[in-house]
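A further point concerns the way the authors explain their paired sequence and structure data. The central task, working out the structure tokens from the amino acid sequence alone, is never made concrete. I therefore recommend that a typical entry be quoted early in the introduction. An entry of this sort, consisting of the sequence and the corresponding backbone structure tokens, reads as follows:
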Amino acid sequence: MSIELPASRSTAYQAGSIALFLAAATILGAWGFEYAGYPPCHLCLMQRWAYYAGIPVLFAALALLSGGNKRAAAWLFGLTALAFLANSGLGVYQAGAEWKFWPGPDTCAGTQSMATSAGDLLKQLETTTVIRCDEAAIRIFGLSLAGWNVIVSLIIGACALRAALATSEPH
């Protein structure tokens, strides 16, 4: 005899809920740092895409799981896991550039347009704010925000993967 737990008490639902909570808390934290005066660089903005895509997908997966559509929920959890594992790779790339292990992308140095006159150059210097990807704006317990993103993305990815695997397990 097999007893089926309500979706809200299942391992998949709990792991997916943890992933959703961590993703929402992380993006809110990123916005908070931005509001506090730490503007994001190009790579920081790229790393946010996993959160912007992952949060609604996780929500949809939890809704599907609650509705009994385990197969679709498992696929969405799996896709979310892949997105956050890839995002952790992007965080490693930025953290490595911050520690000078390798160069960051050209977009880290600001605009690439060439001034054709001294006046254009002065105007460009006055209006361009360069947010460097290869310099940590802040370090918390020795890690930059990119470094923390690696850790959080790995945890979210692991939770989403656990939810996907638990969803597809027979009960």
